[in-house]
């Protein structure tokens, strides 16, 4: 069994949800995406993510199923430099400050000759600048609204706060689903093992019982031959 820190994870989730939201001017838009795929034995799969300068790339991966629950992970910069290398780990979280170019990350299962791996990973891209212009467009409509009880700036700040909390909730739910999937696979594997060895033990008990009955029966047999 692979222990999962449910208590620590839940406490961390509550801390994220209860933490005070950042101000509207400090809120940085983020793009989240996740993917689950099967990596065959002896194979290596690579993915590319274009990034901007002074942005942030956060990548989290987990091995959900497969013998050993381990995989090699590589993260390379646009210049081909190795930024992260994890050797035969079941999960990992890495954050890097990026520059312009395509970042490559690979999952390597070439060390395994039989077992395929089911791998989940999530990408969180911060400061990509896609929503920065939207906030500037909102600010154009603020002029001349001094007579309103609630300014458009206040509305924008509230929207950003809700968006930030929703993004955190989605990220937490995605992580919980990944943990649940890995635990389910481990439990199903243990269930199959218990059933297999139970049948083996049952077969051994039947054979031993038959041998004992035969030996006891042979002790009470009259082996003297009757004279004719």
Brief summary of the model shown:
This protein is of the alpha+beta class and 228 residues long. It has helices spanning 6-18, 132-140, 152-219; strands at 30-39, 44-51, 56-65, 71-76, 82-89, 91-97, 101-108, 117-126. Helices cover 39% and strands 29% of the residues.
Describe what you observe in this structure.
- Mean pLDDT is 77; it is low at 1-29.
- A four-stranded antiparallel sheet has the order 1-8-3-6, covered by helices on one side. The protein has a four-stranded antiparallel sheet with strand order 2-7-4-5, with no helix packed on it.
- Helices cover 39% and strands 29% of the residues.
- It has two domains: 28-129, Sandwich (Jelly Rolls); 155-219.
- It is elongated, with a radius of gyration of 30 Å.
- It is built from three helices and eight strands, in the order H-E-E-E-E-E-E-E-E-H-H.
- By secondary structure, it is α+β, with helices and mostly antiparallel strands.
- Residues 1-24 form the signal peptide.
- Pfam families: EMP24_GP25L (PF01105).
- Belongs to the EMP24/GP25L family.
Annotation keywords:
3 helices, 2 domains, Jelly Rolls, 228 residues, alpha+beta
- CATH homologous superfamily annotation of the largest domain: GOLD domain
Beta strand count: 8
Return residue spans where pLDDT drops below 50 for at least 5 consecutive residues. 1-29
What is the helical fraction, as a range of percent? 25-40%
**In this structure, how is the largest beta sheet organized?**
4 strands, antiparallel
Question: What is the count of helical runs?
Answer: 3
Classified by CATH, the class of the largest domain is: Mainly Beta
What is the CA-CA span between the terminal residues? 71 Å
User: Which of globular, elongated, flat, extended, rod-shaped describes the shape?
Assistant: elongated
Overall pLDDT level: 77
């Amino acid at each position: 069994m692979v222990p999962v820190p449910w208590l620590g994870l839940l406490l961390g989730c509550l801390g994220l949800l209860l933490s005070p939201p950042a101000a509207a001017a400090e809120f940085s838009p983020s793009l989240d995406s996740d993917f689950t795929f099967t990596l065959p034995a002896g194979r290596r799969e690579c993915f590319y993510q274009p990034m901007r300068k002074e942005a942030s790339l956060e990548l989290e991966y987990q091995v959900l199923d497969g013998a050993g629950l381990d995989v090699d992970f590589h993260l390379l910069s646009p210049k081909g430099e190795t930024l992260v290398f994890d050797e035969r780990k079941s999960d990992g979280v890495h954050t890097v400050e990026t520059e312009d170019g395509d970042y490559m990350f690979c999952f390597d299962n070439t060390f395994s000759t039989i077992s395929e791996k089911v791998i989940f990973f999530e990408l969180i891209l911060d400061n990509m600048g896609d929503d920065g212009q939207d906030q500037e467009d909102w600010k154009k409509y603020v002029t001349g609204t001094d007579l309103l009880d609630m300014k458009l700036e206040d509305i924008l700040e509230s929207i950003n706060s809700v968006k930030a909390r929703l993004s955190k909730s989605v990220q937490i739910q995605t992580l919980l689903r990944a943990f649940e999937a890995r635990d389910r696979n481990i439990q199903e594997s243990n269930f199959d093992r218990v059933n297999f060895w139970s049948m083996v033990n049952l077969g051994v008990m039947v054979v031993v019982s038959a041998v004992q009955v035969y030996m006891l029966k042979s002790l009470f047999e009259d082996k003297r031959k009757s004279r004719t």
